[in-house]
Design goal:
This protein has 308 residues and is of the alpha+beta class. It is built from 9 helices and 11 strands. Strands 4-5-8-7-9 form a 5-stranded antiparallel beta sheet. Helix 2 crosses helix 3. The longest helix has 19 residues. 45% of the residues are buried. The N terminus and C terminus are likely disordered.
Length: 308
């Protein structure tokens, strides 16, 4: 492994939507949702269009829908993938650019202006993203290539780690069907710790791909209750027992089982109130951040309207 840190690519600020009037951008639904408001001088009435972005294994897809669910336009853009035996890796930078290309193409094809988009939702595979304190990718590959900072869902490098975790017979496993798959996040994390110590020490955030997309768009590190429960062993019932939904915007995570992480050899992820895997976990349907971050949109294309 080279150990060299790849700086965050400033060109990775391609806007998600075509040039249009100012808007505000908010996050919700399992991974994210966005609300946009038009400038006071914008013509009325405008259509309310909803944008869905789905990141699969081989491509990023964007679809535009009206209030009744009618598809108005769609587009896709391929994403790069590296395969070497049981190891399957991708690049978060490449995926972001693919999303931007698909969204712009879909809007152009459907004749949709940016100010007409009333909401945006992300969906993605159970893939693990590694980034450093600056948001730059950290390699999870034997190659040392920092672009390769995602362990894809189908990657089965962590079979032995999954067996080790399952042998612990932790009470947490009863909420995962009795055993973890090597495609889930804890076995992947344990593999990196055991095999790529330099990367392990460099990573500031470990994120599910869906949550990383929300973070990339807003700068808000709050994780989704959906992704953490389904892919990370977060105890959703404990979360819901202690929090009222109306107060769930940026809720301190209370569903992590610290004993479980200690038992499986990942007790360092408990540090800092689980800062590396999620200090805040929000119910689906709640906004994240203050809007589209300045790093997610080029100032020359947009006048960002923030909400405080």
């Amino acid at each position: 492994m080279s150990g060299k840190r790849r700086p965050l690519d400033d060109s990775n600020t391609t806007p998600l939507l075509p040039i249009s009037t100012p808007y505000s951008y908010y996050n919700s639904v399992p991974s994210s949702s966005v609300e946009m408001s038009t400038a006071a001088s914008a013509p009325a009435p405008l259509r309310s269009v909803f944008l869905g972005v789905d990141v699969g294994t081989g491509s990023a897809r964007a679809g535009l829908f009206d209030k009744k669910g009618k598809l108005l336009g769609s587009a896709s853009s391929p994403i790069q993938i590296w395969k070497n035996g049981d190891h399957v890796e991708q690049s978060s930078t490449d995926i972001w650019h693919a999303i931007c290309a698909a969204v712009k193409s879909a809007c152009s094809t459907a004749g949709i202006a940016g100010e007409e988009v009333a909401g945006l939702g992300f969906a993605a595979t159970c893939s693990l993203v590694a980034i450093d304190a600056d948001g730059a990718p950290v390699t999870v590959s034997w190659s040392g290539d920092s672009r390769r900072n995602i362990i894809v869902w189908m990657d089965h490098r962590a079979v032995k780690q999954a067996e080790k975790i399952n042998s612990s017979n932790s009470p947490v496993l009863q909420y995962c069907g009795g055993a973890l798959s090597p495609e889930m996040q804890p076995p992947k994390l344990l593999w990196v710790k055991e095999n790529l110590q330099e990367s392990w020490s460099m990573v500031f955030r470990w994120m599910d791909l869906s949550d990383w997309l929300s973070y990339r768009a807003t700068g808000d590190d709050t994780r989704s209750l959906c992704t953490t429960v389904c892919k990370w062993t977060y105890l959703g019932h404990a979360h819901m027992q202690q929090m009222n939904e109306k107060d769930s915007r940026n809720m301190e995570a209370c569903g992590w089982d610290d004993d479980f992480w200690e038992e499986i050899g990942l007790g360092d992820l408990v540090e800092g109130h689980h800062a590396k895997i999620g200090r805040s976990v929000a119910f689906p349907g709640h906004p994240l951040g203050s809007g589209l971050s300045s790093t997610a949109a080029k100032a020359r294309y947009f006048v960002l309207k923030s909400s405080h």
